[in-house]
Amino acid sequence: MDGMDTEYLQRYALPGEKTVSWREQTLQYCGRIDRDREDGALMVYPASFVRVRFTGRHIRAVFTNIRAYWTGCMGWILDGKQCRGDLADAGDTVLTLGENLGEGPHELCLFKRMDSCHMALFHGFLLDGDGRLLDPPLLPERRIEVYGDSVSAGEVSEAVDYCGQPDPEHNGEYSNSYDSYAWITARKLNAQLHDIAQGGIALRDGEGYFNEPDAKGMLWLYDKMQYHPSLCQPKTWDFAGYRPQLVILAIGQNDSHPLDYMAQDYGGRQAMEWRAAYSGFLDTLRNIYPQAHIICKTTILEHDRSWDRAIEQVVREKEDTHIHYFAYSNNSVGTKGHIRRPEAEKMAEELSAYIERLNAAHGFWEQA
C-alpha cells in the first residue's frame, strides 16, 4: 500500500480501523475509471463501480466530490441490499456503507449512480480492525459498451410514481444508473458494462443540451475518460483496456434541440449531414472494435420518428452484417418523461431478448 494513500485515509480512520487504498490489488473495478492518477480512482461515468469482498463488522469509503450541478450521490449493493449516500458538494465525504454487520464474508459493489454532473474521486475503504480482504468473484466474460444519453444513464429512473409522465422537479436524487435499461440489460445477460452515457448529449457539437451554450456531442466525448469542460481537462481513454463484443449506440433523442430539422425537412442539408455524421461514427466504432456487433437504436422517450427512420436508413445503407437496427415495441411514444425503473425493466427485457437472438445468429459472445 502506498504511504501517501495510507496517510490520507488515516485522517478519517477511527481508532483500530484498517485503511484499504484504492490501489489495493484485491479491489475489482469496472467502467471507464481513471486509475492513472496519484490521488485516487476517478469515477466519471454512470454504472462504473469498485467491488470488494471482505470480513468484518463495518466498512466505510472516502471520496472527494468534484461537482458541476445537482447533488452528487453514490450507490452501493452490500450483501444484496441496495443503498445510497450523498456526497458533499465540495471536499471529502466519508460514507458509512455498512455497520453492525456479521463477521462475513460480505460482498460490496460501490457504484456511480449519475453522469458527469459530478466526478467522484475514490480514495479507499476503512475496515474495522478485525476485517480482512478476500478475492472478489470474476467479472463476466461477456462485455457490452453503450453510447447514450440520460436514458442510458438512468436519469430520474427512481421517480416511479411518474411512469409515462413528465419529470418531477428534482436535484438529481432520482437518478440511478443501476435502474437504467443499460445496466439491467447487462445484468440479464450476465455481461460487464461500460456505460458511456451523458444526460442531454446529441451526436454532434452545437446540438443537444450537454454543456450549453457550447454544446458538446458524442463525436467529441466518445474517446474520453474524463470530459466535463467545467470540471477538468479532457483525458483520452485507451480502448485497448476494454474490448466489448457488443456495442449499443443509443443516440438521436437530443439532436432535435434546438431545431428538429430531421422532422421538418428529412431530405434537407442538415438532415443529410447528420445521417452522414452518424454513418461516420459507425465507421469509427467498427475500426476501433472490428469484431464487435453494433446495435443502433433510440428509446421509448417521446421524439419524432423521423430520427428512427434516419438511423434505420443509415444502417440499411451500410450493408454491414455487424451493424443492426433495433426498435422497442413502443419506441418514441412510451413516455413524455425519463424512463422509470419499471419502464426500463420492460425495455431491458425486449433488448436482451433481441441480443440473444442476434447472438444465436452470429455467435459474438464467443469472441475473445
Compact overview of the structure:
Helices cover 23% and strands 27% of the residues. With 368 residues, it is α+β, with helices and mostly antiparallel strands. The longest helix is centred in the C-terminal third of the chain and has 22 residues, at 341-362.
What this model shows, in words?
This protein has 368 residues and is of the alpha+beta class. The chain has helices at residues 3-10, 150-153, 181-188, 218-221, 261-264, 269-288, 306-318, 341-362; strands spanning 18-21, 28-30, 33-34, 41-43, 49-55, 59-67, 73-78, 81-86, 90-98, 106-112, 118-127, 132-134, 142-148, 191-197, 224-226, 235-236, 246-250, 293-296, 323-325. The strands form four sheets. Strands 1, 3, 4, 6, 9 and 11 form a six-stranded antiparallel β-sheet that branches. A hairpin with a 2-residue loop joins strand 7 (73-78) and strand 8 (81-86). Helix 3 packs across helix 8 and helix 6 packs across helix 7 (306-318). The longest helix is centred in the last third of the chain and has 22 residues, at 341-362.
